[in-house]
Fold each of these.
Amino acid sequence: MSQQPLVTLQNVGKTFGPVTVIKDVTVSVYAGKVQVLLGENGAGKSTLIKMMAGVYQPDAGRIVVDGKTVTLPTTRAAEELGIATIHQELNLVPTMSIAENVMLGRMPTRHGMVDRSALRNRARAALNLIGLDIDVDTLVGELGIARQQLVEIAKALSINARILILDEPTAALTRHETESLFAVMADLRSRGVGMLFISHHLDEIAEVGDTVTVLRDGEFVAEVPASTPEDELVKLMVGRSIEDQYPRNTGAGTQPAGTQPAGILAVEHLSSTGRFSDITFTVRAGEVLGIAGLVGAGRTELIRAIAGADHYDSGTVTVRGQALPKGNIQAAIKAGIGHVPEDRKGQGLVTGASVNDNLGYATLASTARLGLADFAGQRSRAQAVATKLRIRMHTIDQAVGALSGGNQQKAVFGRWIIAASTVLLLDEPTRGVDVGAKVEIYELMNAITAAGGAIVMVSSELPEILGMSDRILVMRDGKLAGELTTAEATQDAVMTLAARDVDEKN
Amino acid sequence: MSTTTQPATRRGFNYKKFLANNGALVGLVVLCIALFIATPDFLTGQNLLNIGIQVSTVAVLAFGMTFVIVAGGIDLSVGAVAALSAMVSSWLFVSAGLPGWLALVGGLVAGLLAGVVNGLANAYGKLPSFIATLAMLSVARGLTLVISDGRPIKTPAEVSFLGGNLGPVPMPIVVLLVAALVASFLLNRTVIGRSMYAVGGNAEAARLSGLPVKRILVTVFALAGLFAALAGLLLAGRLDSAQPQAAAGYELDAIAAVVIGGASLSGGLGKISGTFVGALVLVVIRNGLNLLNVTSFWQQVVIGLVIALAVGVDVLRRKTRSS
């Protein structure tokens, strides 16, 4: 490539204490190109972008911007050179307006007071850069994640960013929202903005990227065109080939011929005003039931109601013929339900507590004697399940928050395995989990169903739903829009049911 | 294990880590050594017993506070509840004519009930604990004044016994040690104690794991009320009377002790041993400043700085650990 890169990290390295996180990696971002950074969690992607954003300083190598070697001691220094980062966790103040957020830190003033009309105009102009048409007086907290992200991008562009670092921007977006983000990215690309894009969704790479830099264990593995086939990318990333991304061994093998396996979980006419209405389905032993739908279709709300986490208005939830009381988590757990919630850090784990403690919460009371916690027993149970699920950690007393996303998720699963749960309700079970750990979680699901358990899985990743479910329910606007067998299910069939009229709703 | 590895493991003892994890204890030891050098009056039997007696009230209050802070809350009412409990006990004895031991139990029950009300308001009434217990602070202090009509009431002999001596040992020190053991046992060994850490660390994750979060919160505040009552009775027993203005502002000492002891106000962290050390730090500083004839005005300044220093060191420690 004859063109000079906007920014290059040249042979950079970074160590934290004894741990080498990045070793001799070179990556460049060109004007009007989307450079994809690919690697499993822990491969060093975030360390690398933090060096580009001025958060960390490289211990080795150098940073070159427009052909000149620079140092980026602060994020401000990076911003001054036109490098802006859109973080996974957005840096917006939800209680302030869009205009205030876009102009935060550089409010236009007149006579020492905020010049409201200039504020609005400049913010308006920033939103126009990406064709976002919303009232700039709207509070950011009232926007959906997708719009908040666009506001953040507008903010970056308004400070003349030429290089945008997008750290997993699509992780929390629906397919539709992702497409509008990609449209914005395509537009920025045509205007010469260089982008560094991180995503765990392999299918997005060919769609939006130009070239891919693959990292493994902090080292540069390869730079390949974005059109490289997915399994090739996986192989580069994981260092071995993953035979099957979705290793579901459906049907026959798990069920004895001629017998119809019993329904374990039955949900009848379940309704909750404003959330979902009249939901009826049964899940049989050995079955994975996928629930597809757009964000806001009521899937999470349904799962939470079944798990006892929320109340509902009418209908029944039955596990093995036994009706569960409404809104009673303890009763649900006792009946064999295990709930892996959508937001791992916010709802699944006590991140400051140890792996051991986190694995034991569901069984703390049931294994106690005379109100005394069973420490020794808990430890051995936790150790056994951590080994079984291959939770990668230093020790079992390590804070669970220090583990990678996939290992954190395994800890949530492990809790229910210790509790011997037989009906698992999974809400986005592989969100923020890298490819290798994903397959391990799928294999775990197979093991659970093979042992006669039942799984209900909500997921926004269609390939996952299609690949891992034995049967698929599609929800739309809080109602069941249809049911598909594995044979009938295609991306199109699911999307047709999920989104009758896809318009801007959130 | 071969002998050659032994020097390595010994060198492997991470004294830096030890210092970082026991900052308050190290501070206390340094403080004691400094005072021992500065004044001959510090290391005398009588002075040490004084320190023991003074620390008993603060520490017992702070043990109760530890439960609350570990569970992610705060209890501003413990000083007022301590005063109310002692007053109820004396009133039951003097005005209602109950036997002394029953009056003592009545005082403990009063504290427990105040705590339960705090817990109910927080867990079921959805009031932030800061607000619920701020209200209780005012209510309990007010009730104390109402019951006593603003005057001290003498304590029954059973309560005065708590302030007296058991042979050569002051009873408050005995009560303190028993309370420390009980509190530590509750927090470390029992289901409810372990649950407190989960609730304080992430209440929603705890709830979705099937822990009865509301019941745990009520228990936590009830324990804080009970320990406050005990502290109030200790204080009254020493003076042979329940004072309407007793323990005013003690909630802040209790919070300071817990925080100096390494707990985090955002919940999920904290130990009884740490709180004990934190309370000792506060009391030893006051005692030392007294011995050195520093006025109580300056003492407040010093205490404030110590709290800021202790928490500052803690913040720094967590930062270095997380990176």
Amino acid sequence: MDWLTILTTTVHAAIGWETVVYGLAAIGVNIHFGYTGLLNFGQSAFMAVAGYGMAVTVVFLNLPFWIGILVGLAAAAVLALLMGIPTLKLRADYLAIVTIAAAEIIRLIFRSVYFKDIFGGSDGRRGFNGDFYAMNPYPAGHYGIGPFGFDERTMWFLTVGWAVVLLSCVVVYLLMKSPWGRVLKAIREDEDAVRALGKNVFSYKLQSLTLGGIIGCFGGFLYGLYNGAVQPDVFGTEMTFFAYTIVILGGAARVFGPVVGAMIFWVLFVFVGNTLAELVANGYIPFMTTIQVGPIRYALVGLGFILLLVLRPQGIFGDKREIAIDAR
Amino acid sequence: MRDDTMTDSLKAKAQAAFKDLARDPGVPKPDPILVVDNVVRRFGGLTAVDVNHVEIQRGSITALIGPNGAGKTTFFNQLTGFDTADSGTWRFNERAMNGVPAHKVARYGMVRTFQLTKALSRLTVLENMRLGAQKQRGESFWRALVPGFWRGQEEEITERAEELLVRFKLDAKRDDFAGSLSGGQRKLLEMARALMVQPELVMLDEPMAGVNPALTQSLLGHVKDLREQGMTVLFVEHDMDMVRDISDWVIVMAQGAVIAEGPPSTIMSDERVIDAYLGAHHDAPLSEGELEAQLHEAEAELEAEIEEETQK
């Protein structure tokens, strides 16, 4: 048993790139679902248009990195308007259906043969992160304590990534303490009551959808920058559902809920996966093969979440009083 | 008791305005705050609302009554922009209001409550109240990010909210979730929250529904209070005792139309109203022969039944 590898990979997962990327996706979902009560099941679409916006601008149009970021941001904002304007006047479940469909449409456009010249088909796009790593101020080397640590590229990525995560948390904190956030939370509870008090519910929902989408789109940028590539199938529904799991795990409508949720999610995921792999490799679980570790890991992590939600339905940061209240 | 005389005079003033009015549906009022013309709402083949003309007197408490399914709540929804009327116009303070979305209706000073109370459960009582305030600087996205822009205003709003909470005896609950309040307390909260908007016309949809009798008196007092503060009240209600107690004028709806108007003391003896509630001819006298025939019929039926039972 290689306990040291299990330990280091687990610790790395707590602050690693997955936590950053999925944490940002979850912060966005938390604004939609946790604060406003919008069931946006298309969060992966925001990340996809951001990642592709950046990649295509740099690789296909040969424009600088920063223009790529701007294009990605604009794409996410346009997507929020496109998805929101026709659906936000309808009830919550319609939004869920439309967003999940929109996300699939966008994924299928990116992987289509027709647009292969632009989006690269199912292989996606690569080779657009050179400018980002050229900005790296860390000299080559290993950063960390003993076996825990990262190389200079990962350090640069994590510095930027966590700065974006913290900035997003500060923005969410400020907004949700303000009267603006109060309107959002009130819409979650009962939008007709909010209308009767003279607030333009539609406009607030659109603002919420856009803000959460933009924060999620930073997750899309960072995914592309770390992996050096964007592929269409990465931005599937699984990504959205992971983000929802993270939000509920951390506690919906809590500022740091998604961040801590993402840490726990990936720690559990990596720890269970690696431990299982080691146990199987060393013959402690004779009835399993190493190929089976992947799916079993999903099942075990799922079981863990079920237990957590049964024992602590409000999530890590949630307030038990809120769960006790019937939502309507 | 200067307050009492003040109250009396306002009440008297409100009632004096109705003194010489005809009892006809759509009778013009001396100083209407709301004038409704030809509002129609159909759901498929069903005409839920078809109101020709109705006026609401400023500074009064007007009750809107009618049997179940008369279209009272639908009519409310039309007026407040929660549902779109198929046709018709209505003017609030001389401003045309048809097609105006619900949030703008509230901003213009026409605020409603709901039959099924809409307390915002997972917000505290105080947050519920603060939400009602209008023109909040901190409700715009960019300014919300800088607390300096809105903190001063927030303090003013909180002060006003706390005064209202004291008046409605909810001040002890200010930091509790609204979802933890009792049904009656939620009604109180909803009314207090509507007052945060500083409306001119308060529209209450069944304010007494689901309120325990102990709270009824205090709720009634609050509704009367609204008139004393210069607001106009229009409310839908089933409880006739309440209607008699607090309203200055009663409008009766049946099958979507306004069928009668009048002061609360006499409206329930109006023939049109009795017909609407109990059906026409409900008290038409039967001739003696008819009565006997009916008795025989019933007797025969009973006998047949008994026979059937014994044969089994």
